[in-house]
């Protein structure tokens, strides 16, 4: 009888062990289940862009959808708020939408380097899409002056090495990613958020942010 009892205890122990292993495997399987799908909510690039920012948005001040993303949906703000603390979204302005696109790309570089992009960006968007009074480079300068950047400070920054470096990165990134439309968002130089594949079952800004964080998690971030 003692031998039978010992055998039963051993089998029971193995049973609990098996259940534990099964649960652990089940949990691992749940974790590995993809929340979003390639070619649906995101697209994997055919060619990875090396040394790309972890999260990058390409936009144009002339683009009405970019304007809506900023003002109506608050997408860039929501993305940045929900990113891991050690990751910051980089924003590059494209220069292929005509008008003063090259000057606006330069103005964006100046704003980023001077740390006033959070003030200059909304002001330029407003002047183009709402008040519609941005017609010349002097109008761009006036926006900077309204946020406390003098003409002398603007010109000094415009001719600085820092702005030149940012401008070069901006131009190279547009070429490397082969950007043809805006707004577009890329993660780790490998993935592009597919706006058309996003669900409307939750707020648009939250959906966007969630997909980007998911893509970051694919690379362990």
From TrEMBL:
Residues 1-22 form the signal peptide. It is found in: Periplasm. Residues 22-175 form the Thioredoxin domain. Transmembrane segments: none annotated. Its main location: periplasm. The keyword Disulfide bond applies. GO terms for cellular component: periplasmic space. PROSITE patterns: THIOREDOXIN_1, THIOREDOXIN_2. Keywords: Disulfide bond, Periplasm, Redox-active center, Signal. Disulfide bonds join 63-66. Pfam families: DSBA (PF01323). GO terms for molecular function: disulfide oxidoreductase activity. Belongs to the thioredoxin family. DsbA subfamily. This is Thiol:disulfide interchange protein.
